[in-house]
Amino acid sequence: MKQFNQILFLIVIVVPTVIAVKGVDLSASFNNFFCIKNAGYQFAIVRGYMSYGAADTVGLQNLRNAKASGLIGDAYFFPCKGKKTASAQVSEFDDVFTSEYGTVWIDVEYNPSTGCGWSTSDYSGNCQFLQDIVRELGNRGRLVGIYASQYQWSTIMGSASACAYFTSKPLWYAHYDNSPSFSDYSKYSFGGWSTPSMKQYQGDTTLCNVGVDLNFY
């Protein structure tokens, strides 16, 4: 029994502890990212491109404020399908944000802005537009990931299994179960990804007097 306890002790020592890295995403103007960092969060994802088709200069200042406070800084890109080409939108975004962020996450969800919505019938066109956005960013040497939920992906692409062309890119998925864990993903998978990279586990909450969503990886 003594030898068994010694072996068990060694196993406990050498098995690494998995610690969730938590962060926020936000769109509102904000300058107190030290509060967010002191609350235990380690990254911020700011809006980089707005749903109606324009780069977000407020988001750029948020990114700089977040990084100045010691947070990891990414950006999300809410594309407008209709008013402008993928190339034009990426050019507008890149002219403003250049390489100040880590990864740019393409936001694949319902777009409420007039003239910018995803097609409700041309699923292949939706898929192609997303490929165009990803390609244009890749051509500029940017790190690209995809943000979506199973429901949004199915609605926009036609089914959960459709448009499985992005599995080499990291996936940030949304499922609001208030659990910073990937244990739910097998039930809510989509797009061909077998493993996600990040999860948005709580939406529309308030932290440090600003509206945020909560995420982890």
From TrEMBL:
MF terms in GO: lysozyme activity
Name this protein carries in UniProt: Lysozyme
Entry-linked Pfam families: Glyco_hydro_25
UniProt signal peptide: 1-20
Gene Ontology terms describing biological process: cell wall macromolecule catabolic process; peptidoglycan catabolic process; signal transduction
Keywords tagged on the record: Hydrolase, Signal
Keyword Hydrolase carried by entry: yes
Recorded family membership: Belongs to the glycosyl hydrolase 25 family.
